């Protein structure tokens, strides 16, 4: 009997823009052999930044890189959102300083979106910018966070308030990593996949609606296709607008309210769960503004509930949420701006909606 040839990874290209180099997102299995080529020939030192939950992965990777002749260190970060702080970034800078990390050395971020956001930010800020490679290990990291070069940390005042646009040299999405992901985290990533479906690729919605239970699994029949389709949406959008001067804002669909919910919950809600509620809110806002048809608005709640994502939030928190939304990055002056839909895959900006409209949309998600 012959052993089947390993399937080559899918390669999705992200164009360089505004002086940055193009790079590829690879999706497949057993991709770590690609890492040395992405680290490049100039590096002497490599720092592997990983969350506590992936301690053994981080150490194996460090040992592997050391065997290849790099001076490799593993830097363990707290799990999840707790890593996105100035203190954790400073801890990483200290580790780099003590290792004598130079401009030709390379950072590898292995973990979920929180880890790759910090790893990218440390890479952007160390010596004003060093090369980094993203190895996302969550659905959300693969389809969204690791692609596009938005890096950053939170401050007491809000989500992702400090950061930089600093694209990686490459992104390795090893689907096998998803098999250890708790279902709660897996499903959180589906929110960003569903977002990609509503803003650009409705086939995603059809695939999930055909078998929502299978969509919740790392080994479902459509898993790889869903992940690849969402990455293609992100890659296409960021290729044309790295610094979010225009079209990239559509990737923020549902995020204006989501970030306010995350802050209000002291980051104990997963990002994807907050984005799910935020998209239902944005859909209702679109409907109330006369931009979105009833069927598409209703489809939000149905698909998100079908995969087990939340669609409501505590009704008594509205004043605090509005206050936080006022400092959303899309706000211009005093003008709140939301991404809404004018139909499937037809995102648009809604500027300065009447407070009564916001209140009416809020009533639809208030628990
Ligand atoms: N930069 C961007 O463009 C962008 C886009 C979307 C989201 N984000 C950010 O991404 C973050 C959310 O990312 P996330 O949903 O991946 O969550 P996360 O990074 O918080 O990870 C969730 C949990 O899973 C653990 N984990 C990671 N991989 C694992 C694995 N393979 N097996 C077991 N456990 C694992 C983590 O340690 C953590 O405890 C948010 O901070 C969000 O703001 C950034
Ligand atoms: O890549 C983008 O652009 C996005 O908006 C993707 C979002 O899913 C992501 O959560 C992003 O981190 C939000 O960025 P922010 O600029 O609103 O903080
Ligand atoms: Zn997001």
TrEMBL record:
Keyword Transport applies: no
Cofactor: Co(2+); Zn(2+); NAD(+)
Localization, UniProt: Cytoplasm
Binding of Zn(2+), residues: 192, 255, 271
Binding site for NAD(+): 113-117, 137-138, 150, 159
Highest taxon of source: Bacteria
Swiss-Prot/TrEMBL catalytic activity: 7-phospho-2-dehydro-3-deoxy-D-arabino-heptonate = 3-dehydroquinate + phosphate
Gene3D superfamilies referenced in this protein's UniProt entry, alphabetically: 3.40.50.1970, Dehydroquinate synthase-like - alpha domain
Occurrences of domain 3-dehydroquinate synthase C-terminal (ranges): 189-331
Annotated pathway: Metabolic intermediate biosynthesis; chorismate biosynthesis; chorismate from D-erythrose 4-phosphate and phosphoenolpyruvate: step 2/7
GO biological process annotation, one example: chorismate biosynthetic process
Signal peptide bounds: none
GO MF annotations in UniProt: 3-dehydroquinate synthase activity; kinase activity; metal ion binding; nucleotide binding
Assigned GO CC terms: cytoplasm
Role summary: Catalyzes the conversion of 3-deoxy-D-arabino-heptulosonate 7-phosphate (DAHP) to dehydroquinate (DHQ).
Family per record: Belongs to the sugar phosphate cyclases superfamily. Dehydroquinate synthase family.
NCBIfam families, A to Z: aroB
Entries under HAMAP family matching the protein: DHQ_synthase
Name under which the protein is recorded: 3-dehydroquinate synthase
Naturally occurring in which organism (per UniProt): Streptomyces xiamenensis
